[in-house]
Amino acid sequence: MNNKIKEWLPVVILIVLIFLARMFVFSPVRVEGHSMDPTLHDKQRLITSKISNLERQDIITTKEPDDTNLYVVKRIIGLPGDHVVMKDNVLTINGKEYAEPYLDEFKEKFKKDKLADEYSYSTAFQEQAANATSFTTDFDVTVPKNQYFVLGDNRLISKDSRIFGFVNKSLIQGKVLLRFWPLNEFKIF
User: Fold this and answer.
1) Residue 74 annotated as catalytic
2) Of 4-18, 23-37, 103-117, 166-180, which one has max mean pLDDT?
3) For 67-96, what is the mean pLDDT?
4) Catalytic residue among 6, 27, 63, 74
5) What is the pTM of this model?
6) Residue-wise pLDDT tens digits, 141-151
7) 32 CB-side CA count, 13 A
8) Catalytic member of 35, 158, 161, 175
9) Which of 23, 31, 76, 148 would suit a FRET pair with 93, their CA atoms being 20 to 30 Å apart?
């Protein structure tokens, strides 16, 4: 009996550690929709950290403030206390301009054909893009304490803080660490 316990104890400990890590440290997530294109695509699988510090331009998973049953993947643009301005597709935070290289691909496609090819799966998105005058609409916000301002990378169609408002820190589920599926698109963020 003692030998059986010695044999199985490491397996039991490993299972308990994996369970605890899954509960309190890491979480798998599946991307639903196109609001984070071109950075992340529909049906991709991610691993998030529940214990990471949150920084500007981190990709996170959060509950939507206006429907806490929905989980979404967005990018943090404004931290608590930040003054965030978007004017003519230029992001300024607290008076400093910030580059957004993750938007370059779609900005070029917007200039070329208003993303008509990219949005071929949705005539509603094509119409929305055709009527848009810029890739990101202008806004000017100050982020309250314990709140975050988040945007999707696909700014023309993303439902984000411009629509549902600021995200309370308590709604944020985790910071995206890596994309593991599909395997040929594996990436550490």
Assistant:
1) yes
2) 166-180
3) 96
4) 74
5) 0.87
6) 999 999 999 99
7) 7
8) 35
9) 31
Quickly tell me which residue has 């509960």 as its tokens: 23
Active site residue 35: yes
Three-state SS sequence of 62-76 = EEECCEEEEEEEEEE
Helical spans, DSSP H, in the chain: 2-24, 104-113, 123-131, 161-164
Q: Tokens in use for 123?
A: 């005539």
- Whether residue 148 contacts residue 175, with contact meaning beta carbons closer than 8 Å, is answered with no
Quickly count: other Cβ atoms within 10 Å of residue 87's Cβ.
12
What is the distance between the alpha carbons of residues 126 and 100, in angstroms, rounded to a whole number?
A: 23
Instruction: Provide the CA 138 distance to its chain's centre, in angstroms.
Output: 20
Structure tokens at 180: 């593991």
Q: Does 110 score more than 80 pLDDT?
A: yes
Q: How far is CA 61 from CA 50, 170, 182, in A?
A: 10, 12, 19
pLDDT at 1: 61
Among candidates 142, 150, 169, which has minimal Cα distance to 82?
142
List beta partners, residue 187. 179
Question: 112 or 45, which is more confident?
Answer: 45
The top-scoring range by mean pLDDT among 4-8, 65-69, 117-121, 180-184 is 180-184
